[in-house]
């Protein structure tokens, strides 16, 4: 099936007003008319700045998190509807750093996906196994369990999500899954989606985990790899643009 690939930069907790501006200016100067879809996810505090900088450009705005709640007495939270006010198109949910450091469970992640979808924001649902889980042969079980929670709560809307397979052992480590390892897990996730939606082929399944300018083309050539979620390499305009260029 012919669908546009999606390349997403996850800036994590990096940036400043000045650094964001110069990164975006470099990206816009070099991006031209990309053949794939492109988005960046800055820290939430900079949404207004990024909304202004990206206005009218081919780069869309994403966020790194969304509240499980709709509105009310939830100090420190930001709702999906508020994000929508700032033109947010994508919301990363269930990133392994949040699962690990903020104790986010599969159920939290599923509810976040639901809140995003209800506000017209596409959730990028992250799944992935730790090194130990891989070594114990549990990779498929773990990623299927993580995705099942989202499918269970979101039913037929499951075809509206983006999935990101991010092996935890590959995130920020410089150690990338081989294209074959990644493709194998992506095929498992695709098959799982096929069990619940006839539109599984149009769901984009991104790979994330030390994707960079040198390895992107080979990963993106795999039949079930529909794009990338990029951490470290998204902070360097030249590297990020090369990855965008590799996504036909
Ligand atoms: C990420 O955090 O989503 C990620 C893929 O990071 P990195 O590219 O730095 O491994």
UniProtKB/TrEMBL annotation:
EC code: 5.3.1.1
Location in the cell: Cytoplasm
Pathway field: Carbohydrate biosynthesis; gluconeogenesis; Carbohydrate degradation; glycolysis; D-glyceraldehyde 3-phosphate from glycerone phosphate: step 1/1; Carbohydrate metabolism; erythritol degradation
Species classification: Bacteria, Pseudomonadati, Pseudomonadota, Betaproteobacteria, Burkholderiales
A GO term from the CC aspect: cytosol
Binding site for substrate: 10-12, 172, 210, 231-232
Keywords noted in UniProt: Cytoplasm, Gluconeogenesis, Glycolysis, Isomerase
Gene: tpiA
Active site: 95, 166
Name of the top EC class for this enzyme: isomerase
Function: Involved in the gluconeogenesis. Catalyzes stereospecifically the conversion of dihydroxyacetone phosphate (DHAP) to D-glyceraldehyde-3-phosphate (G3P).
Chief site of localization: cytoplasm
The organism of origin for this protein: Ottowia testudinis
Similarity-based family: Belongs to the triosephosphate isomerase family.
Subunit structure of this chain's protein: Homodimer.
GO molecular function: triose-phosphate isomerase activity
One Gene Ontology term from the biological process aspect of the record: gluconeogenesis
Protein name: Triosephosphate isomerase
The reaction(s) this protein catalyses: D-glyceraldehyde 3-phosphate = dihydroxyacetone phosphate
Keyword rRNA processing in annotation: no
């Amino acid at each position: 099936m012919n669908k546009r690939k999606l390349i997403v930069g996850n800036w994590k907790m990096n940036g400043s007003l000045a650094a964001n501006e110069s990164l975006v200016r470099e990206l816009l100067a070099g991006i031209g008319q990309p053949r794939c879809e492109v988005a960046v996810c800055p820290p939430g505090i900079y949404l207004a700045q990024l909304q202004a900088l990206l206005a009218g450009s081919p780069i869309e705005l994403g966020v790194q998190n969304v509240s499980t709640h709709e509105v009310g007495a939830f100090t420190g939270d930001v709702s999906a509807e508020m994000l929508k006010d700032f033109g947010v198109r994508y919301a990363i949910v269930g990133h392994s750093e949040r699962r690990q450091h903020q104790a986010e469970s599969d159920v939290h992640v599923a509810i976040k996906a639901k809140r995003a979808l209800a506000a017209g924001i596409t959730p990028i649902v992250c799944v992935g196994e730790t090194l130990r889980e891989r070594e114990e042969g549990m990779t498929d079980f773990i990623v299927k369990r993580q995705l099942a929670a989202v499918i269970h709560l979101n039913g037929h809307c499951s075809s509206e999500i983006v999935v990101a397979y991010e092996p935890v052992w590959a995130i920020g480590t410089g150690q990338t899954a081989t294209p074959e390892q990644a493709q194998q897990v992506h095929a498992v996730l695709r098959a799982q989606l096929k069990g619940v939606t006839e539109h599984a082929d149009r769901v984009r399944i991104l790979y994330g985990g030390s994707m960079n300018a040198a390895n992107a083309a080979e990963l993106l050539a795999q039949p079930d790899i529909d794009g990338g979620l990029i951490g470290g390499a998204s902070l360097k305009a030249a590297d990020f643009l090369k990855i965008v260029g590799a996504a036909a």
